[in-house]
Amino acid sequence: MRDNALAKELIAIGHEAHLVPMYLPLQLDEERIDELTPVFFGGVNVYLQHKYRFFRKLPRWVDLFFNGRRLLRTVARRSHLTSAKEQGEMTCLMLRLEESNLDKEIDKLVGWLERDGRPDVIVLSNALLTGLIQELKRRIGVPVVCTFQGEDSFLDGLPKPWCNEAWKEMALRVQGADVLIAPSQYYGGVMEDRLGLEPGSIQVIPNGIDLSGWEEKEGSTDKRIGYLARMCQSKGLGLLVEAFIHLNDSSLTLAIAGTMGGGDDIYVEELKKDLEKAGLGDCVEWFPDLDREEKIDFLRNLSVFSVPVTYPEAFGLYLVEAMACGVPVVMPNASAFPELINPAACGVLVVPGSAEDLARGIQEMLNDPHRELVGKKGRRAVEERYHVGAMALDFEKVFRKVVQK
Fold it and tell me: What global pTM score does this model have?
């Protein structure tokens, strides 16, 4: 979502920008600018060419079939069936790209990038793609900017030895980038430490959203606690449900929205059973797979917003979306959240991982007579700093510097 909004805004301010999907088609709730762009290094092709020599020699029209967006979306829904070992092996393969058997995929990407003339700069949306840097620089010869977007959680979830190997390889590969960018001071520090980089090696450009259509919440007497993120354990959905049960107040409504990936449906069903057992099943509303307009309407009708993630969050775009709708927030006092919430004074920070303290924070915000004012402060913070216009201008400055060098 960040990349799509950034590319659109760069185009709006007079640049030519292309969004190039890798592995899988983008799944967004807003207008995409990549509809006519092929998917490169499609997940099915990469797997088959790595495993079987036969697929490395097939004509490109066969690759086009395996890169079909419908097929790749089906694969994405079944990604939970891929073993952790295979994920680790493929991650290290992509980081050591020049040692792989994926020459055909590299040729296709380079050929497309050069189709309408050499680009001035290439942006890698996450550091898992840094295996491309050496080949892109050798064959196209332009600056490469790399952004970080939560790679640590993915890599730490890989089994040994793949986890350790991937971290070591990434530490080498990022050094080939002309500029490294993180979405928060917190995450920049995390990656500098994990990759053995000097402090200050990573610049910070906060993520931003396109504010068109985002409106502040309307006044309401209902007390609605909202969640908008993937419906999974790591995003803290179970913790929020536990806090709601701890509140034990049938006058409250818990509204849960977001997507469900592979295996999330089983997790959600268990949470529903817990709520029914507590006698609160009828107090919870579920909203899967909202589009952009539905998402804005959902947020505007909340009293309090919380996504109490249980892992180190690099930024949290969902938090900015809630702030854009003028909703006060209750978030863990960890990760990037203090950077966003404290300067804006737009919510409450609670003890990470504690359902009891989360319930206390939610109750405190629900009872705050100045709750609407707190929400308005969040909206102002988004208008000043966390919108796509500010993000695009910051990236533009970086691009100009690296191109001039």
Answer: 0.87
